[in-house]
Design a protein that fits this description.
heterodimer; A: 287 residues; Immunoglobulin-like; five-stranded mixed sheet; elongated; B: 85 residues; mainly beta; three-stranded antiparallel sheet
Chain lengths: 287, 85
């Protein structure tokens, strides 16, 4: 488990469950974060994120939010938020911790002029369960006086990007998370492009939908491969486009989902069926 | 804002339904708890805004005011559907 405390942040998880259900969950899973109970969906409504596609008489699902995550700074200002249409997709802990820390500040010194761009590609996390987003992270080191381009670029230039191989079945990729850019005006025609300088970090969130899993005697695995592409330029000239291939093979751990009883990947049980019955009964009485 | 349900998907077999992104579950897309919004949907307060007050009861039964409880630290607030199902 990625340590939110070590990142200096506090983690809160709010749902429309009853207090005693949360207490059971906390015990069953050894949760160390704060579980908050919003049984009448008051907080959920106050945020304006009640799932209104579920009718009020559709027991017991009514009252759930469009699930998502807010990250604040120490002043309580929202710095990032994560909402996906598909509830199956949730940001992984590494991504949230990165969000808490803000843009990555690399302490590595920038290479001197005339040196080459360097890039390190990393799969952030130890596994890729179904639906949990992890990131492919490309950490560039761009020599002084040089820059990389952000999309879109005119024909003939290559923007810095992370691309997955076409045959990566079952891997879903999302919008590239990129650091701030600087406007850069081309001498030739006065065109202004957005460029990265220094040590930019590009992050490609990915998830898998279950079809990416392969099994062998050692367990279940997911492979992700692709390439990082870029082209380095200074004020006068551009180097030839470059790329670096990557290939990662990580375990596909189980996602803890419905916990209604014992079963593969569903240990320890928290007697979900009992809480579910209570929830259903209460909602029937309330209407 | 009238939000539409995403019902795109296909039946693969008994209790095997795939949604538009290829995720497989025992329920068809758009049914009961598998009600995802199609297109734009409300995601609450925006980046740059102060996180609205969150006052709720925790798993120990005590009332928690998030902004007081976080003691000046950054907070990560997850809205999840249910810990039960």
């Amino acid at each position: 488990m990625v340590d939110f405390e070590a990142a200096g942040a506090k983690l809160y998880v709010l749902s429309y469950d009853e207090v005693d259900a949360l207490a059971d969950y906390k015990q069953a899973h050894g949760a160390t974060f704060t579980l908050l109970s919003d049984p009448h969906s008051e907080v959920i409504r106050s945020f304006g994120i009640l799932n209104t596609t579920i009718a009020e008489d559709d027991h017991p699902w009514h009252g759930i939010p469009y699930p998502g995550v807010y990250v604040t700074d120490g002043e309580g200002i929202i710095t990032q938020k994560f909402f996906e249409n598909n509830f199956t997709v949730r940001p992984g802990a590494e991504q949230l911790v990165a969000a808490v820390k803000g843009e990555d500040v690399l302490l590595a010194e920038r290479p001197a002029t005339d040196q080459e761009v360097e890039v390190e590609v990393e799969f952030e996390g130890n596994d890729l369960p179904v639906g949990i987003t992890r990131q492919i992270v490309a950490r560039f080191s761009v020599p002084k006086g040089m820059h990389l381009y952000q999309e879109p670029v005119p024909e003939g230039l290559v923007a810095a990007s992370i691309e997955l191989d076409d045959e990566a079945e079952g891997i879903v990729s999302y919008t590239l998370v990129a650091p701030e850019t600087q406007p850069h005006t081309l001498g030739t025609d006065g065109h202004t492009l957005e460029v990265y300088e220094g040590n930019p970090v590009l992050r490609l969130p990915i998830a898998q939908n279950g079809r990416a899993i392969t099994k062998d005697d050692d367990g279940r695995w997911v492979s992700v491969s692709g390439r990082v592409r870029w082209q380095a330029c200074n004020d006068e000239t551009c180097l030839v486009p470059d790329e670096k291939a990557f290939s990662f093979r990580v375990p596909s751990a189980f996602t803890v989902m419905a916990d209604m009883g014992p079963g593969e990947g569903r240990v320890p049980s928290m007697n979900g069926a009992t809480h579910f019955k209570k929830m259903t009964d209460r909602r029937k009485t309330a209407s | 804002m009238q939000i539409e349900r995403d019902t795109r998907g296909a039946e693969l077999g008994p209790n095997q339904y795939e949604d538009a992104e290829g995720y497989i579950a025992p329920l068809p897309a758009g049914y009961g708890p598998r009600s995802n919004p199609l297109g734009a949907f409300p995601t609450g307060p925006e980046v740059g805004e102060y996180l609205p007050d969150v006052v709720a009861v925790n798993s120990e039964g005590s009332t928690v005011d998030l902004h007081i409880d976080r003691e000046g630290k950054p907070a990560v607030l997850v809205f999840t559907r249910s810990a039960v199902w």
